[in-house]
Amino acid sequence: MKILAFAGSNSSRSINRKLVIHTLSHFQEEKITLLDLNDFEMPLFSADREREEGYPHKAHQLLELIESADLIILSLAEHNNSYTTAFKNVMDWCSRINGKFFQNKPMLLMSTSPGGFGGGNVMNSAKAYFPKCSANILDTFSLPSFNQNFDENEGIIHQEIREEFLHKIRELKAGLKK
Hints:
Layout: E1 2-7, H1 15-24, E2 31-34, H2 47-53, H3 57-68, E3 71-76, H4 85-97, E4 106-112, H5 120-129, E5 136-143, H6 146-149, E6 150-151, E7 155-156, H7 159-177
Parallel strand pairs: 1-2, 1-3, 3-4, 4-5
Antiparallel strand pairs: 6-7
């Protein structure tokens, strides 16, 4: 199985990237492509730029990576109750090339934040919008209060939340084997 994983953040200290990396540690037997959103930085989307310059090569590259994936693991950062500007811009460009840019790929959709809602606003937005972009969201996971519930070496340290997370990983793996 080929896994495409990334955080919807361009921060060099992204807690969502840390959550993605931790999640990937549970898929060590798989072929993993871990993206850095910074490697897909594109000009700010505008209809004028699209008309005059066409589509950025990096948008095509990302769509090819999505096409070759068997599973997408994505953790969204939340800025002002929504997607980060960097992630939204990537979505804008990719959706102009292919409105169904998630290409029916199975997805584990996650979010985390320092606050107690764990990126719940962006999660709710994505759960409503991503299926319109042909995302096949198999499960979701939100980690609240990242700084209190996550350790760089141990991963999720809150017992109940860790059990919920591990249950979702087991269910996801079982579902993908069917």
